[in-house]
Structure formats: C-alpha cells, structure tokens
Amino acid sequence: MTQEPAGSGAARGHVRVMLADDHPLVRAGVRRVLEGVQGVEVVGETETGSQTLSELKATQPDVLLLDLNMPDGDGFAVLREARTVAPDTHIVVLTMHAQPEYITRAVREGANGYLLKDLAVQDLVAAIDAVLAGGSFFSERAQRALAESLRAGGAGESPLARLTGREREVLVAVARGMTTKEIAAKQNISARTVETHRANLMRKLELRSVALLTQFAIREGLIQPGEAGT
What we know:
Blueprint: E1 15-20, H1 24-35, E2 40-46, H2 49-59, E3 63-66, E4 69-70, E5 73-74, H3 75-85, E6 90-95, H4 100-108, E7 113-116, H5 120-132, E8 137-138, H6 140-151, H7 165-175, H8 180-187, H9 191-205, H10 210-219
Parallel strand pairs: 1-2, 1-3, 3-6, 6-7, 7-8
Antiparallel strand pairs: 4-5
Helix pairs in contact: 2-3, 4-6, 7-9, 7-10, 8-9
C-alpha cells in the first residue's frame, strides 16, 4: 500500500471527476481546487448514496471522490456497488476517518486511494494523477495508521471490522430510529432478515439494546449525534 508517484499535469489530458459528499461546503471547496487544475472537469455532484450510484452509472467519470458518510446508507455499500456500475472509474475515498479498519476495508471494497479531509487540498491532485496512472494514493496519516496497525499485529481492531456490509447498513438505520418495517422496505429485504441482522449486530458487538447500538454508531462516526433516532 505504498503511495505511487503522481503523474505530471501536462500528461494528464482531459479528466472527468465526480464528487460525492453530503456537505455542500466540502463539495464547493473540492470543486474550487479542481477547477484550478488544467485538464480536470467536474462532471457531477451528489449528496446521497442512491444519487451517487445513479449519476455514476450515467456519467461514467474517470475519478469518483467519495465520502464514506452518506445520509441514506453506508458509504462502503456505495463503494462496493460502484465497482459494478462503473468498473473503469477510479475511486478515491475522501473522509474524516483515519482509523485503520476504515482504510483497510475501503481497499478491500475497491478504493484506489484514501484521503483525509483535513489534508485533502494538498493531496488531491497528486491522488488523481496517481490513480489515473494505475497506482494508488494514501495520505500520510492514512499510511501511518496502517503501519501502526500492522506493527501491532491487528491488536485493538475496531468491532466494525467484524460486521458485513449489510450489517453496517442495518446498524446505521437502527441508530437513525428506523423501524424494522422501514429498514426492510429501504433495503428490499424481509422483516425477518432485518431482525436476523439486528441479532447478529448485538452478538458481534456485545451490545444488548438499540440505545447502545446507537451510541456505538455515533462513537464510530457512522452517524452524527443529530441523526440519532429518539
């Protein structure tokens, strides 16, 4: 997971970039940076997972800059589905999460790069050039987090790593106060399957109430405190 050298701007050619982030100010800041880069065109902006997949399928950009926090679901699910709807698109995760488990899972799900939002401006163009050249790009803090995790032999790995993609989606929905029926309709699965996922969540996380699941989701950054259900 070494950082590949970035290509030169002169050799970049015409690059079509799509932005997926639920914060308008973040999208505006990233767009402003990219609009100042020769050969780069921002071809779309989305703020939800469903919008992202729909726009991605229609636009087929060269690069997708993807946040992991989506208001209508798990960003990892978007990342996973993106590999199917736009297999030639290079995906760079743009997030606030520096935990090793987030980074390693993003790589497993198909991310070509991983940037942290607080340092994204200085790394953004280099990351785009690197992934377009067939390499990968990880911000310095992300590389450090992975290295420390490897040195520790995986000790202290977050319980999040134990969950499947669907279990994470159900966890987010439960934490947002959605009912079993609502989750089943949203995920297009049966109510019984939702209950099974909820039971698996409680078993894997060793949390025995919805309130504790909600606290866990907030602590791990899956939802913001204001999104929690009552």
